[in-house]
Amino acid sequence: MDTWGTAAEIAADVAAGKRTAVEVVEGALARIGARDKALNAFTAVTRERARARARSLDAARGSGRAAGPLAGVPFAVKNLFDVAGLPTLAGSKINRERPPADTDATLIARLEAAGAILVGALNMGEYAYDFTGENVHDGPSRNPHDTAHMTGGSSGGSGAAVAGGLVPIALGSDTNGSIRVPASFCGIFGLKPTYGRLSRARTFPFVASLDHVGPLARTTRDLALAYDAMQGHDPEDPVCVERSPEPALPSLEAGIGSLRIAVAGGYFRRGASPEALAAVARVAKALGVTREVEIPEAARARAAAFIITTSEGAALHLDRLRTRAQDFEPAIRDRLISGAMVPGALVTRAQKFRRWYRDEMLRLFQSVDAILAPATPFPAPRIGQQTMLLEGVEVPLRPNIGIFTQPISFIGLPVASVPVPLEPLPIGVQVIAAPWREDIALRIAHALERAGAVAAPRPAE
Amino acid sequence: MGTDEDALDELIDATARALGIPVEPQWKPGINANLQVTLRVAAMVAEFALPDEAEPAPVFEA
Questions:
Q1: Residue from the list A196, A209, A334 with its beta carbon closest to the beta carbon of B60
Q2: Domain residue ranges in chain A
Q3: Rg of chain A over CA atoms, in angstroms?
Q4: Catalytic residue among A92, A141, A158, A178
Q5: How many CB atoms lie within 10 A of CB A351?
Q6: Which CATH superfamily is domain A7-300+343-450 in?
Q7: What is the ipTM metric for this complex?
């Protein structure tokens, strides 16, 4: 069975009785069995659970019950989502000793309520403090377009599983870019919704001020289907807002109409490789965009996100640093211990700056509906690569991967990351919208997809 | 703001004691390098003038 098909096609086939959920799930499990050795995307495959769920979906359909919008669609989740019966690893060695989760994360339950079928948990950078997709405990997830290259992180397994055609939809988390970076490196679509939109309940946290969760997929329609199925207030996540769902699917095909779109200049052009600039130019041209705007103090916004991240991350892990420091991945241990030593006044200054920056961005969004910026400064580097040549200067690789994503998630703006299929490796562009306007970001992403400017390229195998 | 490596090693030793984090000697160069970067970027944020009334804003409300 060809597993490159979309979630929308699978759901339509299952609803129409052209395929059973059992057939779809067996196809996905066979594909995972055949391809995951090379990609190392999965840390657990929930075979029996998926088969049981598929059988019960087929039985429900047989008895005349209406199929959900994601009927029979296999999906997988970054292993920081609680999956009943599995310990929630969050990419770490230490969490392997946790008791198995007794309840699924809210977003898993919502996708399954729409008919989707969980097939497993996915590799990730340890405790999500990562942009590479590498992991010393589980080994690196590998880029389906060239397995010698990174997936990007920290939702690396999510990127590999979707781009490699193992599942049409995966969930990831994004604190500083961890959905948008693997979407860019792996050549797929990713949605980081507005901070507070989707429930983080029963996901292992990293930085409470900045943590988001969201879907990755190979088409904008699949992204919107998953996103719409997951919306809605959840009292179990203290930052999840009391806001009615605002489905993106109904306006997905509305086109760009009179939307005011601009390219981010200044900071978002410096430090970008020729590929990143070419990708933004291609997207801007397809949309007929010539206007440029300056995102004010983006470098300082990134700096402030960095400080809040290291400090809140250290606070989260303080007890483990006291008792289990040797069990962390060494580079992450060093970052977390140093984070515990940052004076509190500097962290509060970063939070105060966030207020100023938020006000400035809201002002900017009075004159523009969406902003285009590179998702990453370069396409996927090789696994293990430590430095990068940018504008002829050798720079350390890891801290530069998130330079274009951090200033955006810092104030929780919604972003659709869209893949530009450059050769030999794809690269992503961020479509950034005002708070709560995921619908606009997805509309623009869909218009770009329809125009042929962006697409998830199918890897050669 | 001082980012002198030796001074930072003293800060690391003192804070590690205060927080009860056992720091192996071979971890110190990595911790020191990270702390240097953090303090450098923190200085960049802290030097940005903000009114006393600027309060943190963790959540967007449209």
A1: A196
A2: 7-300+343-450
A3: 20
A4: A178
A5: 19
A6: Amidase signature (AS) domain (3.90.1300.10)
A7: 0.93
Cα dihedral: A218, A222, A227, A228 (round 10): 170
Q: Residue B35 and residue A303: Cβ atoms within 8 Å?
A: no
pTM: 0.97
- pLDDT tens across the length of chain A (461 residues): 788 999 999 999 999 999 999 999 999 999 999 999 999 999 999 999 999 999 999 999 999 999 899 999 999 999 999 999 999 999 999 999 999 999 999 999 999 999 999 999 999 999 999 999 999 999 999 999 999 999 999 999 999 999 999 999 999 999 999 999 999 999 999 999 999 999 999 999 999 999 999 999 999 999 999 999 999 999 999 999 999 999 999 999 999 999 999 999 999 999 899 999 999 999 999 999 999 999 999 999 999 999 999 999 999 999 999 999 999 999 999 999 999 999 999 999 999 999 999 999 999 999 999 999 999 999 999 999 999 888 788 888 998 999 999 999 999 999 999 999 999 999 999 999 999 999 999 999 999 999 999 999 999 98
* Contact indicator for A35, A166 with CB cutoff of 8 Å: yes
A-chain CB neighbours of B39 within 8 Å are 342, 346
Answer yes or no: do B56 and A355 touch at CB < 8 A. Answer: yes
Distance CA B61, CA A241 (A): 9
d(CA A98, CA A103): 14
Amino acid at A126: E
Handedness of CA A2, A189, A164, A42 (dihedral sign): negative
For residue A27, give both structure tokens.
């196809």
